[in-house]
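Step 1: inspect the first sequence and its C-alpha cells.
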Amino acid sequence: MVLLATRPASRCSSSCRRGELILDFRFVSEPAGSVERATTQLVLARCGDSSATNSATTSASAPATTCVTTSNGAAVSASAKMARATTTKATTMMGGATAVEFNTVVFKKEAVDMAGETEFIVRGGRDKFESVPKAFEGISKIGVIGWGSQGPAQAQNLRDTITDLGLDITVKIGLRAGSASETEAVACGFTEESGTLGEVFEVISESDMVLLLISDGAQAKLYPRILAAMKPGATLGLSHGFLLGVMKNDGADFREDIDVVLVAPKGMGPSVRRLYEQGKTVNGAGINASFAVHQDYSGKATERALGWAMALGSPFMFATTLESEYRSDIFGERGVLLGGVHGIVESLYTRYTGEGMSKEDAFKNTVECITGPITKLISTTGIDSVYKALDAEGQKEFMKAYSASYMPCKDILMECYEDVYSGAELRSVTDAVSRFDKYPMGKIDGTEMWKVGETVRAKRVESEIPLNPFTAGVYVAMMIAQIDVLREKGHSFSEVCNESIIEAVDSLNPYMHARGVAFMVDNCSHTARLGSRKWAPRFHYNLVQRAYTAVDNGASADAELETAFINNPVHAAMATCASLRPSVDISVSAEASGDGQDQAGAGGARNY
C-alpha cells in the first residue's frame, strides 16, 4: 500500500499544541499507474504532537520534494524510468525547522554545521565549472524568458560560462513583440540574426530548459499558455516560488511530463551579474543561491538545477522547496530587506529631526548608518558584531532601542508571514497588478528626506558616517525578529541567513548605499514594490506608537530579550556562512551606466 495526500495541507485541530499543518491521506494500491496519476503535492506534516512524522522520503514519481513511502518503509517506484529520479529527504530538526536533503552524482555534496544542525550544500566557483557540462547533458537550448531584474544577469552569466566551457548550447532570450527591453537585450549581444533573441512562446516551445524570469504578475496571467507551450521532457526553471503560490490559489498544478526546478539567487539580478564579473579575477565571487526540485520527470532535475546555479557563479547552493522559498522571500522583502528598512529610516529621520538634529545629520544617522557601517559589520563579522563595536554607553542605548523595537516589529512580521502563507498577500499582488492601468504605482523619492539624501551622498566621506547605537538597535531588532519568525515557522538556518541577512547586507544594502533606499523601493519587482509600500507604513506606525513612545516614557532594556539576542543561535549559523563567503565585496557604481547591468531594477518593473 502507498500513502498519498488527497488534498492540500490544512490547519490542524485545536488539540495540536503548535497549531501548524496536517494532511489528509488515503491508501491506494501500489501499481505504477496509480502512483503516476497522484499529482497532489505532499508536504511534510509538522505537528506539535511528539508522535508526528519527523521525516519523509521523496519517491521518483512524486512531484514534490517531500515524499511518499510504502507501508513497509520502502520508497515508491512508479516505473524503471522514474526510479532514476533523484531521491530527496526533508528532515525536521530541532525547533521544528526543516532541512531538505538531496542526492547528486555530478557535484560534491557537503555537510555543514549550522548552529548544531546538519545541512547540506554544494560549493561553487570557477574551479568547479568543469562539472557543468555533465549536468547539462541533453540540453541544446536554454530559453531565458523576460528581461527584468534577473534576466540580463542570468542570461549573460550562463552564456559566458557556456562559452568558456566550449559547450554547444544556445542561450536565447524570449521577449514579447515590441518589448521595450529589446534594445537592452540587443546591446548585450542577443539578436535575432544570431538566433539568440525571439518571441516569448516561440522560444519556450523550442527550448530544452525554460528559465521563466518575467514579472510575478505576468507569470500569474500567462502560466497556462507557458506550460502548454513547453516541450514534453523539458525543464521549467523558476527563480522565485511565487508561481506555485498563485497556482495553489487557482487550484492548478504543473504538467506531469516536465521537470520543475528552482534556482533563486539571494540577491537582485545586477548583483548576480556584478559579482560574476568580479569572479573572473577572484574565484568564488558571486551570490549564494537556493535550489529546489519540485518535480523530477527526467530523473535529471537535481543535476540541472545545480548546473544552472553553478553556471550563474553561486559560491554555494543550499536546498529548499518552492513553498519555503516563496514564503521566506516574499515575507523577507516586506520586512528588513525593503519594506521594514524603509519604515525604520523614515520613522527615525522624523524622530531625529524632531529632536533638533539637522536634516543632513538625521539622514547620516539613519540611512547612511544602516547601509554603511552597520551593513559592513554584519556582512563581515555577524549581527552581534554591531553591538560589540559600541562602547559601554552605546551598548546601553543599543539595547534600550532593541528591547523597545523587537516586539512591535515581530508583531507586524508575524502578521505578514501569515498573510503570505495563506495566499492573501499573493492575491493582493496579482489584484494590484491587474489595476495598474487605472491605478499605477507612483514613486516615493520626492519627499524631503530623499532629496536630502541626494545631497548627503554627493558629499559622503565613508569614514565619517556615524554608527548610531539607537538606529543600530532598531535595525538589528527587526532583523532578529524576522529571523525568529522564520525559525518558528520551520525554515532552515541556510534559508534564514541567506534570505534575511546575507541578501540584505551583501546585495540590497550596497545598492541602497550607492543610490538610496527610495531608489531601491522604486526600482525593484512589482511584488517587492507593492509589498514595501503596503508594509513600510505598518512598521513606521508601530515603531512610533509603541517602540519610541516606550523609550520616551523611560522604558529600560529588557534583560530577557538581551540574553536571547546575545545567545541567539543565528550568530553561530552566520559564522558558518561567513566561512563560505568569498573575500570580494560587491562593487556598485553611484549612477546607472545604461547597459542594464548595474541598475538596481533594470527592467524589474516590466512584464517581459
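Step 2: inspect the second sequence and its C-alpha cells, then contrast the two.
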Amino acid sequence: MKYVAAIVFLSLALYALTSYSQAKPESAKQKTVEQVVDLVKQYCGSCHKIPSPALLPKKSWPAVIQAMADLAAKRMGQEYISAEYIRDITAFYAGSSSETLPRLPVYDDVNPPLSFRGFELGHESKMPLIINIKLVTLNGDDAEFLVCDGGRNELLLLTKTKKGWQETTLAKVTLPSHTEVIDIDLDGDKDILVAALGLLPPSEALAGKVLLLRQSETGKFEKEVLLENVGRVSDARAVDLDSDGDLDIAVSVFGGGLVGELTWLENVGGGKFSKHTLLNISGALNISPADINADGKTDLVSLISQEHEMIVGLINSGKGQFKLERLSKGPHPMFGSTGMRTVDLDGDNDIDFLVTNGDALDLQQDPKPYHGVQWFENTGNLKFVYHNIGRFYGAATAIPGDLDADGDLDIIASSWNNYWDDPKRQSMIWFENDGEQNFTRHNLINKPQSIVTVELKDINEDKRLDIVAGVFRIDLVKKIFEQPDKKLTQDADVLAREELKSRIIILENLGSNNDLKK
C-alpha cells in the first residue's frame, strides 16, 4: 500500500480536524504526519489490508472508521482504539479523500454480436426477492428450476411443460438461499437439500437452517431439519467428504457480526448427522466442493466477505480431516465480495475461480468503481493468479457459459446495486471470450433492475443458451430497514406505493446479429 497521496494532504487534514471530530482534548498533543501514518498501519492493518482513502468519499469515512473501531472492540471484548486515535485516523482518511468517487464510464455497445428477446415468467410482486435459481433434473421435464423466493418465503419448482410455464410450491422456507437435488439415502428417489438464511440483513441471530425435502412419493416431499440454531446459512452441498460411501453435507454459515462458520455434517447413518466445525468466521458466501489440488480428494472452497475479503480452501487430508489454506486475499476490506463459482475457465483441466464483488449492504452503500468481475487462474500448488474481466457496478453474480457457441466459456454477470436513474446502466451484461480469456463486454438489459441470480439453459432447443434470471430488489429492502420498526413485511408502508414487478425473466438467445441480418 502506498501512502504518498494521502500524506500530501494529511497536514491539511490534521489542521482541519474539527470538521470531523470533537474538539481535541488539551492533554492530547498534535501528532506529526509520520505518527498518524504509523497509527493507520498499526490499527487499520492489524486484521486486513490497509484501505486507501480513495476507496470512499470524504463524508463516509467518519462513520466507517467508528464502525470498524466498534467492531474491533466487540471482537476483543474491550476498547481497541482510543477516542484520540480514532480522531487521528479519521482525519487521515477524511482529509485525504475526494468529495465523490469517480464514475465508471457508460458503455455503449455499438455492434453487439448477439440478440436477445426478453419476457417475464410467473407471478409478479411488489418486492421481488428471488435469492437463487437453480437448473435441476427432478421430475424429468425439459426445463426445471428450483427457485428460492425470499419474498414469499417459499421454495418453488418452475417447470416448462407442453401447456407452458408452471410454478409449484414445494415447501415454506424462510429466506431459502441455495438448493441441490440429491439422493440422500440412496433409495433412488430425488430429494432436495435446502440452505436457509432465515433472516435479513446480516445478523448474529441464530436464524439459519439446513433442511432436507425428502421425496416420499413422486412430487411429494417431507421437510426435515438437518441443522438449526446456527447463524444465517448461505450454502449447503452434499458430498462424500470422508470417503465412506455416503453423502455428508458441507455448510457455510454467513451469520453476521461475531457469528458464522464453515462446517460439515458427517453422515453417521440412520438419517443422523454429526456436526464438525472447520472454521469460525462470519461472512462465508458459499462452500463449493472441488478437488483444487488434483489429489483425488474433494476439497472445499469458500469466498469470505465482510472485513475478511478472502478465498479460503479446506484441503481434504482424508478421513474427515482438513487443512486450512488462504488462497487469495482481497485488495482491501471494502472490496465487497458477492459470489464465486468453481469452473475450469481456461480449459486446462484444473479448477479456477470466477468471483464477483459489488456488495450493496456494506457500511457505505453507493456503487463503487472497483466493483466487478474477475477470475483466479489455478497455476498449481494451491497458487491462484488474479485476472480482471471487467468493472461493473454492483456485480452480484457471474456464470460461465458458451453464449455464442464458439467453443469457449463466456461470462454473464448481473448487478443489484447501480445508478438506476441512468437508463444506460445495465442490470445484466455479458463478456465475450476470444478463446484466450480476453473478454469484451456487451450489454444485455437495463430493466428490470437488481438481478442477483442467473442460470443458463437452452429453453427452446435451438442449440443456443438462453438466460433465466431472478430479481432481488435490494433497494426496497434498504428502504424498509430504514423504517423505525426495521421489519421486512409485505404490508410495510414502503410497499404500499409500489407497483407489481417482474420476479423471474428469460432472455431468449436469438443468435448472431449477422445471421439475423441475412
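Step 3: confirm your contrast with the notes below.
The radius of gyration is 24 Å. The mean pLDDT is 90.
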